Amino acid sequence: MSDEYDNNKSYQAQSSETMGGSAPASPDMDYVRPAETPDQELYHGHSFITKWVFCQDAKVIGVQYFLTAVFTGIVGLILSWLMRLQLGFPGAAGFMTAEHYYQFVTMHGMIMVVYFLTALFLGGFGNYLIPLMVGARDMVFPYVNMISFWMFFIAVAVLMASFFVPGGPTGAGWTLYPPQTILPGTPGAGMGILLMLVSLSLFVIGFTMGGLNYLITILQARTRGMTLMRMPLTVWGIFTATVLAMLAFPALLVSAIMMTLDKILGTSFFMPTILQAGEVLEYGGGSPILFQHLFWFFGHPEVYIVALPAFGIVSDLISVHSRKNIFGYRMMVWAIVGIGALSFFVWAHHMYVSGMNPWFGFFFATTTLIIAVPTAMKVYNWILTLWRGNIRLNTVMLWCLGFIVTFVNGGITGIFLGNVSVDVPLSDTYFVIAHFHMVMGIAPLMVIMGAVYHWFPLVSGKFLDEKLGKWHFWLTFLGAYSIYFPMHYLGFIGVPRRYFEMYDSPYMTSAVGMNEFISMAAFIVGAAQFILIYNIIRTLKVGKKAGQNPWKANSLEWLTSTVPPEHGNFGERLPVVHRWPYDFSVPGAKDDFITQTTPPSEVVHTEVEKT
Amino acid sequence: MSDPQIEGLQLKPGFKGMSEDTGSDQTMFKGVHWGKAMMWIFLLSDTFVFSCFLISYMKGRGSTLVDWPYPSEVFALHVGGVSVPLLLIAIMTFVLITSSGTMALAVKYGYEKNRKMCGWLVLATALGGLTFVGMQAFEWTKLIEEGVRPWENPFGAAQFGSFFFMITGFHGTHVSIGVIFLFIYAYKVFAGHYENGGKRGWFTTMKGDYVEIEILGLYWHFVDLVWVFIFAFFYLW
Amino acid sequence: MVKAEKKEQSASTHKIGIYMWIWGLLFVLSFFSYMVDWYNFQGMLRWSLILFFMFLKAGLIMAFFMHLFWERYALVNVLLWPMTAIACFIFLMVAEFEYTLFSRAFYFVVGGGA
Ligand code: HEM
Ligand SMILES: [Cu+2]
Prior knowledge:
The complex is a heterotrimer of chains A (611), B (237) and C (114). With 611 residues, chain A is mainly alpha-helical.
């Protein structure tokens, strides 16, 4: 991490490190210029309501986001069980009709992508970790942050309400493609779709409030000495994902508004002339493909909104648990930023079979394959970080390794699908299902699990049980592979996605056993997640005390005055940062880690990186 | 505003300054108030909202087989028996630009701690905004009387009405929200919330400061900016 | 915010003249773009004039009324880069509406391949 700071006095002090290890320790070299902004004044809640319900502490808000997202995630999981039950053992779930199946597919997809993963990574981890990691007392606008959570909460409530309205939730697929989405014949084309659109709009508004907080906290409220290039990659991942969200959600909002108008006012933004049961409908002249463009202008960045925080978090976990600095920190940062920027130029690779302008295939295949380059760089860097590291094969590390495997797997099938000629026969088959579950379902989920095992000692002060953790990991990892690996094959033989039943088609006869196997695996994987819930409850009761900085990590969240950190995070004085968070196993240092707050004068005789 | 003074840091101009600001600790936008930075990022996001609306409009209008109504005639006003094209729109534009100017001056006087001038100018801006909303309501009424509906209109492609009501409606909502805040802030300025170290706002522990007028101004100018694009693309094109 | 900055800000407001100039220019430019319609220019001339006045007005508002001209490049830079995504979106949607128009004309009017 060599840095060409000027020899300007203040900068020299800031960049801090020893020149060749021989410089004498002087107090001057620890100088960091004073704070630009005065300390943030916080509103401290006193009653139960202001402390735990309408709380303005980002950490509590993070936990609230986390729990709400996990709740929706469990709903999504149960829906996937029901779908797999039907697919593996047609008719076994007696009440399930084709309409139900579509509704479950739709709600499962939307819940998992938006209300579970996005909310969990940005709302949950973002809120908890950003202020701690950049050395701030709280988010910059705690009140707005609190409102953000409650907007999300209402959005979830509206979404869940759609299960109970006449006609049930929408069954249009999570992509909500018009014109069928709002026409009779699609389940939930009445209230269901309206509630979905309202809920999405509320989600966007709530997220915007939170997102502004995350961005401004990272950009304008870092502690003394914390440069952007000294931030943990977790923060970089969440930061870039939030930027994407701020710029991509508008397209979702706009398409939701336009579709709502089509539905309730009878405008024809997305609705062409339609003949239904021999009758010409009132609609006419609209463009369904416009919706697809708007949706995927949001939808593709959305994929990276889920993936980038996972990239960031897993980098930190791998570095800490293999006691090595992350390989190519700057490359990692630029890869995150580059992937984020490119993700706005690839959206129509989801539309190769939509009937868009045929020249677009060329453009979007090219940009899509370009984005694979920074992504592959990140994978190499994770592996090179592990290379000859002092790997602790604990539960956290297992989840990280699981992530690398599933992510590479899903990434490779992504390159298949990025090419028009390969995608055309494979689109809308189980190959696609396998691809995106690997890359944006299971892989980020692995990171979430790793992160939960990693940061639980910070949030609660206690270690989760390792033995249960390992059971949890192996069941989930092997199980998830058993679910999705065979699906690639199903895709190759042409099994279409979003089908309730295959009846007597050749697929049915040749793949019966496979479908049963996949379903069994899905039940086991789903059930295995309850091991974690049991583990958490047990740990809270009888878990092993963790104490301060149990993993011997370097970043600021472990250096708070109390564990778990209290409101205001750092006690009397904010920490002053002198280095990046990856100084592990530095030759010459007495410990195998040097925290970000260790001043240069204490490490003059080590070969510490200059950051 | 011109460069802030920051203890222990020599700010450089131009691109050199840009890279050093970005590479420095604590803040990336040197001397920029949190609220102001937040408003800028919000406006960036809002720009994407309006861009998506206008892009949809472009796609809709560009691919229609039915003739698009001729805005110059649809939006004409009859004054003394002659039809003047786009008269009302021209007046609305005039009003909005006027209010933008008063807002810009309000910000200037705010920073000069001229409470009276600042307050009156914010109030004038609010009144300008109110006039604009009023005229828009008049325009909507007139079109509805002529049979223009979101789902159909007598002049041509049905999407004309759809996009018109949606886009001007969304812009009008922005103006209305702005007007409400302008009135509130006019009160706050007159009441002296930004004097003597500032009074704490609602729901926040931050002290009031005239920078809030600049933040409000950013929003208001943005609304004006959007109108520039709507004027060009919807009425003139 | 910081003391130093406050002092700075009150000292650094701009002369009233600059605002008056911009204000005046905005009126004049709006008048010109109105004239485009008044004189009923058509075709390329109309569109290029509309765009020219539009961008000029937008630029003046952003640069002076919103103070971007005086802001440090770090902020300006962050605000302008994302517009490339919008530019790309616009560019592609132009191609898309032309294709939609073509296929509508081809299948609905001409009668298509059938
Ligand atoms: C144990 C875990 C999971 C199982 C067993 C599972 C199973 C399924 C099944 C059976 C389908 C429907 C396939 C079809 O008929 O077209 C589906 C669709 C989908 N799943 Fe999952 N899933 C799981 C986790 C996830 C996660 C974590 C995500 C987050 C990204 C996710 C996102 C989606 C999406 C976006 C769809 C497409 C919905 C649509 O076609 O509209 N799933 N999943
Ligand atoms: Cu994509």
